[in-house]
Amino acid sequence: MQSLNSCNWPGNDPLMITYHDTEWGVPLHDDRKLFEFMVLDAFQAGLSWKTILYRREGFRAAFDNFDIEKIAAYTEDKIQQLMQDTRIIRNQLKIRSTVTNAQAFLRTQKEFGTFDKYIWQFTGGKTKYNDWTELSQLPAKSAESDAMSKDLIKRGFKFVGSTICYAFMQAAGMVNDHMVYCTKHSGGKS
Fold it and tell me: For the stretch 117-144, what's the b/e string if a residue is b when 16 or more beta carbons lie within 10 angstroms of its beta carbon?
């Protein structure tokens, strides 16, 4: 059951509540997990987060637990297998972009040492806290997500428009968009 001191977007869905309470807005610095969120946010485009969240374990199984090196080396045969995998969203462009993004992710890791070091530069290395009081105030994008999108595209990433980047920033805790009345809003804010 959802708390009265919580964001209302998870509704009464147990999986959405758990995601809200344990992951969304929590600063993330693990490269594999960052890649997972990048993939899932790309697949979310045009769909609800709930749809993706309920298929998350299927995505993990289908995409080798988001092993970036393995995904970067996927062959055409593997892509065709994924197109038949009912555990995931079978969108050919998004599946192919996952392979392309794994390759770009590895290049970025090599350049910066970690993808974490690269991606967090867009918020100055720390979480940006917003003080929203209503869900309708949440933006679809920001100046930071615009800059991130532009740079990722320049690096060869696909499905990284500003709106997808903003959702990624929320998921990875680069932006804390919990409502001010939510107990998760000030967690970690000094």
Answer: ebbbebbeeebebbebeeeeeeeebbeb
The pLDDT of residue 3: 54
Per-block average pLDDT, block size 10, for the chain (190 residues)? 76 95 95 98 93 97 98 98 97 98 98 98 96 92 98 98 97 95 73
Complete DSSP assignment for 82-100: HHT-TTS---HHHHHHHHH
pLDDT reported for residue 190: 41
The reported pLDDT for the residue numbered 186 is 76
Two tokens at 18? 């758990």
Q: Which residue has the tokens 């996927």?
A: 74
What pLDDT score was predicted for residue 189?
Answer: 54
- Residue partners of 164: CB distance under 8 A and separation at least 6: 41, 42, 44, 45, 149
- Amino acid identity at 189: K
Beta bridge partners of 129: 176
Q: CA angle at residue 116 from 112 to 67, to 5 degrees?
A: 95
146-154: Cβ within 8 A, 24+ apart = 147/122, 148/119, 148/122, 151/122, 152/104
Q: Tell me 118's DSSP state.
A: H
* Cβ partners under 8 Å of residue 68, min gap 6: 31, 32, 35, 102, 105, 106, 109
